[in-house]
Amino acid sequence: MRVVALYKWAPNPQDAQVDPDGIVDWRRATEALSEYDPVAFELARSLADLTGAEVIGVTAGGSAASSSLACKTVLSRGIDRLVLVADDRLKTADSTTLAAVLAALIHRIGEVDLVLAGVSSVDVNEGQVSMTLAAHLGWIGLGGVREVEATDRGLRVKRDVPGGSETLAVAGGAVLTAVADAAVPRRAGMRDILAAAKKPVELVKFDDLDVPEGQVVVSRVATSRPDNARRQHVVVEASEPAAAAAQLISALRQRNVL
Amino acid sequence: MSASLDTWIIVADDAAVGGLIEFGRLRAGKLVAVVAGRKSVADEVATAGVDRVVWLGQPPEGTPVEAFAAEVARQVGEGLPRVVLGPDTTAGRALLGAVAVRCGGPVFTRVSALDLEGDRVTLTRILFSGIAECRESVDGGPAILALPSGGQVSATGTAIPVEQVEATPMTVALVVERRSDEGVSVDLPSAPVVVGIGRGLKAKADLTLIEELATALGAEVGCSRPLAEGVDWMPKERYIGISGQHISPRLYMAVGISGQLQHMFGVRDAEVIVAVNSDADAPIFSECDYGLVGDLYRIVPALVAALKTVR
Fold it and tell me: Is residue B164 predicted with pLDDT exceeding 90?
């Protein structure tokens, strides 16, 4: 059984600098996985441990994804090998394009039974790629997933739905997006980190893949930085809590929000 | 190319698409709803003021709505609308993904404005958890948007005919069991006052302190991510953030919350934001109206006491 776990190595917007024209400077931002990717790794690893499956980490992104740090970070978290495209032409690719590249990688790997993904990436944070990937593959895409089990007929998937939960029997290829608290990711120990350096990494060239071009053309007209000035920023040291509390409540009553 | 000026709305077995209909109604061309799911949903949408309802037929027992993704995409592909609006829900995103592949374009999220001028579609959307905003023009195919679905539709009184079309859903996944949530459901988006609690809280038992504050304020309680996940102190429905609840209360009081982007995105529309945090450098102090720097274990009881006396 082959399980693919998707991930994205990307900069955290928290560390980005944005000028008043909305131009984003990522230079001080460190790249990392999102908090959600390791949840998908954990589900994949647990399933693999019970079934003897192989877990393959797959990503498509900018060149930083092929760095030693990026690869070791993923390979030390329950992933057996990596297959990725790391090309700066993909740095600003939209979700449909990225999904198309991922689909091409999955076809290239061959005989993949299941794709697992986390909620969203740390930079763009859209939570769309996994479901668009399902459509590219012609597979069912299911979100809100909490548990995945192998059965003799395929998979048993438990997921959240509005108002409760449901269990599905899945008898074919599926892309599953795990909820943020589906699993607590295991910490990478020293052994995992050392072993990571020896695991296979297949770097696929973007030009070697057959990726259909999109038809829709999106052109950026303008950027801006949202106006923070609407907030008052009245910040006080509350060394005298009772006095500070009284002041605050008075101000809130004056503004008619209390 | 878009053949028509129509706006299509995707309904994923849930008729609570009032927000999509509002958003779609003010555009040129017809408003067409493509409904995957039960007949009752199609019937309800048919009273909501759309111009056409295309229904993919009653799902066979146990069919998840996501199994209709390719069929939804097929209908949209034949309709060639200029704009497609889908609900920003788990199921909605699955259907939108199929539409995106069919149309060869991205799904746009966090769209704050959509302008249609003649042939030109321009949208404004928020980037990277709220640090920037951009305007983009979309050509060569429909602009596909995931939007907050916006609650119940209002019946206009006239029900238009529901057009049923042939559709074969995928059969690879079957629902074998369903369970309803026990307990009281939380409705954070409707609460006029919300208290958020974060990592500053040291023990689960200390939540009683926050509950006292909430009672004194007449507030609902929400949390930033760390308290909803892994640590499991609060149910996931109380998580406020970019991938959780988006709220717009009169007053949002963030206690022991550092103010990470992903959380603040969920409260950006609050009228007034108050922050209580012991770290003077916490990012939340540049995102709030009023901030108290200090120990929440002293400040919260002081707030509770002050709220009880000034009445």
Answer: yes
Which residues of A fall within a CB distance of 8 Å from B235? none
Probe site for chain A from B131, B144, B242, B299 (most A CB atoms < 10 A): B131
Confidence category of residue B233, pLDDT binned at 50, 70, 90 = confident
Give pLDDT, residue B78. 95
Q: Do A143 and B90 touch (CB under 8 A)?
A: yes
CB contact under 8 A, B290 and A157: no
Residue A203 near residue A68, CB atoms below 8 Å: no
Q: Is A49 strand, coil or helix?
A: helix
Q: Nearest residue of B to residue A243 by CA position?
A: B302
Residue B274 in tokens: 């108050």
| B224 contact partners, CB below 8 Å, separation of at least 6 | B196, B197, B198, B199, B239, B240, B241, B254, B257, B258, B260, B263
pTM above 0.90, yes or no: yes
Cα–Cα–Cα angle for B293, B299, B303, rounded to 5 degrees:
125
Q: Does A235 touch chain B (CB under 8 A)?
A: yes
The SS3 assignment for A253 reads helix
User: Over the stretch A62-91, which tens digit does the pLDDT of each residue have?
Assistant: 999 999 999 999 999 999 999 999 999 999
pLDDT tens digit string along A189-246?
999 999 999 999 999 999 999 898 899 999 999 999 987 678 999 999 999 999 999 9
**Would you identify the CATH topology of the domain A2-208?**
Rossmann fold (3.40.50)
- Sign for the CA dihedral angle at A51, A160, B18, B53 comes to positive
Q: How far apart are the first and last CA of chain A?
A: 58
Chain B contact for A46 (CB, 8 A cutoff): no
- Per-residue confidence (pLDDT) for residue B228, from 0 to 100: 64
Three-class secondary structure of residue A238 per DSSP: coil
Contacts of B228 in chain A (CB under 8 A): 180-181
Q: Is A57 exposed, middle or buried (0-12, 13-18, 19+ CB in 10 A)?
A: buried
- Domain borders along chain A are 2-208
B262 contacts on A by Cβ (under 8 Å): 125
Locate the chain B residue with the closest alpha carbon to A126. B109
Question: Above 80 in pLDDT, residue B295?
Answer: yes
In chain B, what residues touch A40 (CB-CB under 8 Å)?
Answer: none
Q: CA-CA distance, A27 to A137, in Å (whole number)?
A: 35
Q: Does A84 touch chain B (CB under 8 A)?
A: no
pLDDT at B4: 86
pLDDT at B1 exceeding the cut of 60? no
Would you state the pLDDT for residue A72? 97
Q: Minimal Cα–Cα distance from B159 to chain A, Å?
A: 27
Domains of chain B, with CATH numbers? 7-164 (3.40.50.620), 188-309 (3.40.50.1220)
**Average pLDDT, whole number, for chain B?**
92
Cβ of A135 under 8 Å from any chain B Cβ?
Answer: yes
3-state DSSP of A76-98: CCCCCEEEEEECHHHCCCCHHHH
Residue whose pair of structure tokens reads 């295309």 in the numeric block: B54
